[in-house]
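Q: Structure for this?
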Amino acid sequence: MKPIFHEEFTKLMREDEKVVFIDADLAKAHGSENLRKEFPDRALDVGIAEQMAVEYAAGLSAYGFKPYVATFTPFLTRRACDQITISVCYAKRNVKLIGTDPGITAETNGGTHMSMEDIGVMRSIPTMVIYEPADAAEFKKALPVINDYPHAMYIRHQRTQAQDVHEGDFEFDLFKAEVLKEGADVTIAASGYMVAEAQKAADLLAKEGINAEILNVHTIKPIDGETIAASVKKTGCLVTAENHNIVGGLRSAILEDFSERDVYVPTEAIGVRDHFGEVGFLPFLQEKYKMRPEDIAEAAKKVIAKK
Amino acid sequence: MSFPEVDLKEKAKEIRYHTCDAIATHGAGHLGGCMSCVELITVLYYKVLNIDPKNPQMEGRDRVVMSKGHAGPTLYATLALKGFFPMDWLKTLNASNTNLPSHCDMNKTPGIDMTAGSLGQGFGCAVGLAKGSKIMNDGATIYAILGDGESQEGSIWEAAMTASQQKLGNLIAFTDYNKAQIDDWVDETVSLEPIMDKWESFGFNVFECDGHDMDAIYKTICLAKRKGMNNKPSMIVLHTVKGKGVSFAEADQVGCHHMGIAGEKAAQMYSEVK
């Protein structure tokens, strides 16, 4: 996603002179350092000062700009949580917050750099919208929509690991979950990195004659409970798959919504089970946290048996 | 910009009275820090700021960020006197459905340029505003009022480094140096000294003056504006007295950060600020 990130923001900043891009000493990691050459006034690096970066963005927003702040997820959502809550959301500032390398995709940066809780933290801040693209093509479609959305938003962005999920053209609605594959036996609702893993799980299940429906729940708040509920009404059961603690993230959002809708179906959860992260490459981490396609397929069979 | 001739001392008296009245009407409030910045607010709003009460959102206007957001009532009294909203709003401080909450809220109060109150954040926002003005090249000056206790927050110094790095000569900050915070004297808690050297070492033009001498405040702001031409942000350290103008508050500067005002206390306060 790194080249896309740079290319798309270049395009956006050319089209919209109100867009300001703020880095906190991770421009090279994000591929955004070249923005400074073309937009020296609007592509800014405030150094390793994330709380200040968010305050600064709130101030720029109060001056009519559309600031984006990008840094690794934990440094944004943990360290600057009060700034995001008060100077951005409470103050109704149109600041877009981009957390990169979410969950296990932080890989060899290890446990200190792994956010297993960022969705839970951001989700409980009133008014915050949370979006997590499944691949680069989707992020490309989403960016102009995000830019036109006039309120704060948290974007959980996979910097390097995004696998292609979409083939050809596709419809994108920021506030609608996407049905990637229709199926009749089980619904797998996934977000971010886990969408591609869910697709692989569906292939494994197909070999055993199980037809899984795959939902790309890219917007976790507000959750599109209507689409997800319609899917489980058809399949009768649900597996959630997220690159996050299963406490406070996608699973929690869906089940909270279901309880409001009086939707009760057997569920299984794939995600980090209340552990901190640790250093390693994705295959190791996926195995450790049981987040492989095989684990999703097993969960699907288990939940089908509960119907 | 030209300003109508006003008796600043008279204005400061009015602001002090209406601030005290708002707090007493509610029954309690941040009296100490509201009183210590009355003269600064008077000078800013009656001699310095390019603002229009009839058009609070005027483009290119100067902006004030009350980073020590608990001093909102002093700003509210001033904004009401300037005509940003009716005077009778002042009686609604902290009441249900009020437009005047204890800490400044840009979405509730006409004339408030930035929400503040979670200490340390307003100054960083002011740095963002100053950068916004620079990008727009609209000639505005951004003023930020910091508490001394507030300056123990780390993000104040993150913001100071950025303001300096980005050469924001259009940013003028004040430290309301009343030397007391909730728990104790600042020097007994975590001292800011040497405060002048600290700000200077962070790349600011640094000034100090008596924060209750309005002539000195005005002259220092003018000097800071001129010095700001060197593209350095400015810090004006105002030596003030917490609770200034209310004898029982001045006598208990550490205790007057937030206090109840009722009964005999209220009567005494009214007799002193009328």
